[in-house]
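Dear support,

I submitted the protein below through the web form. The confirmation email said the job was done, but the results page showed an empty box. After a refresh the structure appeared. I'm attaching both so you can tell me whether what I see now is the final result or a partial one.
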Amino acid sequence: QIITMAGKQITRLLAWLAMAVAASAFGGGGASWMERRHKLAKEASYASSRARAPTAPHRGLALRMSRRGEDSFSEQKRLSRDAFLKLGACIGLMFLEPSPPVGAKTPKKTVEEVAATFRQLLQAQATIEQADGLVQRSDWKGVRKLFQQDEIKNIERLLLDLVNGPVVTAEDKKTIGTRKRYGIAADVIYGIDGVISGIDSLSTPQVENCSGGTCSGELVDGEQEIRKSFKNLKASLSEIVTICRAYKEFK
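What the results page shows now:
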């Protein structure tokens, strides 16, 4: 493994050296012959453009041709420089390792780690089942306390580990989703947020619609809204667990 790492470092060094040599070669001795020709062309152009008596009618044409020659040589030098640098860059890129496509994801968790994640999700489901009885009795303090447990507080991380792991198929990952890529997982996450924020806001009257600091509509029943969020949360997590149970790694 140490030899492999050392080889990679040497490869990167060769790549950068190739590109650096290309750049320095053109800027230094490698282009001295071009610089010398360019200097001679400028001197010739300057000599032809000095003020003198118009002894011949074609002098203006000669002056324009001289300037055009200088411009043409400057363009030739620029094109040669670009080609030289591109060649150096290509040589350097030959040594570099290919990188994965943008947006490609490699599994960050092993099968065993994802299986442990699923067991924590089962624990979260058991906690929610326990909270169900408290919701029916309107024991909101008890529900709030249960939702402070790690498997509930870390539910979003657990769901991310699940979809970023190597077990679940791409189709099921899309179905489960995340907070940003809306799916069943988003219903779980927003459901927990809705229950907690609803309990914390029970003492404050709530209206139906609030946007940009402006609220309108009828007053809502806070406890009823908590129950709606809890019901959706419970059903969504149960759906995710059902999907996962189809995999032998989770049995």
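Response: this is the final, complete result; the empty box was a page-load delay. Residues 42 and 70 are 7 Å apart (CA to CA).
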